[in-house]
Amino acid sequence: MLTTIRTRLVLGALLALFLPLAAGAQVSDPIQQEINALLAEIAALQQQLATLSITPAPAPTPVPSPAPAAPRVRCPSLYRDLSLGASGADIVALQSFLADEGFFHANATGFFGPITEASVQAWQSAQGVVRSGAPATTGWGVAGPRTRAAILNRCVVSANQPAPVPVSTTPTSCPLAPPPTTACSAGWQAITDGYGCTTSYKCSIPLSQPTPVPMPSTGAFSASPLSGPAPLSVRFTTLVSGIEYSIQFGDGAESPVLIPSCTSAGIECKPGATHTYASPGTYTARLLYAPKCPAGLACPAVWQELGQVTITVGGSTSGTVQ
């Protein structure tokens, strides 16, 4: 653009030098008109050149400098394996680290419970430390050596915080871990880690030995009558009693072994139960025994058969099983 303007100005200057000669030679009017037009164009180009000369060039757009990286979380001091059931100040530090990382959303209580274990598993998976398995095999959910090394690599040490103890350094003292205040009949047993530090406690309650099952003797379970027309009322008698014993009558009904109230003289009072069979058929009644379950424990119902009798409804004989 500037080169073109300068070229035109040079041509205009040459014309200006020969202008007097052209006027003196009495040039015709058309030539004079063309000269005047060129002079007007020269004046316009001079004004345009002056405008371009005083207009400053646009300043270059500044390139923004990158913002400084935000400091990462503080580095927890972890010197032992941390797993489910552990407690101590280092658990608080681990929970705070996981909260800063966005994986722990509860209060830092200092107890390694299921919430902390799930948070460790999520952090391990996000960092590629381990993504499956079990605490005892792959360290899934445990702040072991690999996980602690990954934490050291992830976090930075604050200027006001001492450097963490190396992973391989044996602690000079164990964190305080008092036993629970709840009662344990057998006494609380301490659970220690590889350094001999107490991490948690367990209460082992010994199970009481089951009561020996009394073996049925002759006449331990009898019924009378053994047969008859429906409806047939049958009296079952036993030599044992208690809530551990039950009679199943064979028709879907059952009853505990009861001790009758004997008021008439000469009547033999034996534990048992009375049942009426409404429909004809052959039924097998059974005397069952289940030992007591220790108080406070849930035990499966395991019944043991001690005896049985067969009842025939629709016949005419009666008797007693011996």
UniProtKB/TrEMBL annotation:
Range of residues in the leader sequence: 1-25
Keyword Signal assigned: yes
Alphabetical keyword list: Signal
Domain of life: Bacteria
Pfam family, one: PKD
Domain PKD intervals: 245-287
Keyword Ligase assigned: no
UniProt cross-references to InterPro entries, sorted A to Z: Ig-like_fold (IPR013783), Peptidoglycan-bd-like (IPR002477), PGBD-like_sf (IPR036365), PGBDSf (IPR036366), PKD_dom (IPR000601), PKD_dom_sf (IPR035986)
Annotated protein name in UniProt: PKD domain-containing protein
Organism: Candidatus Kaiserbacteria bacterium RIFCSPHIGHO2_02_FULL_59_21
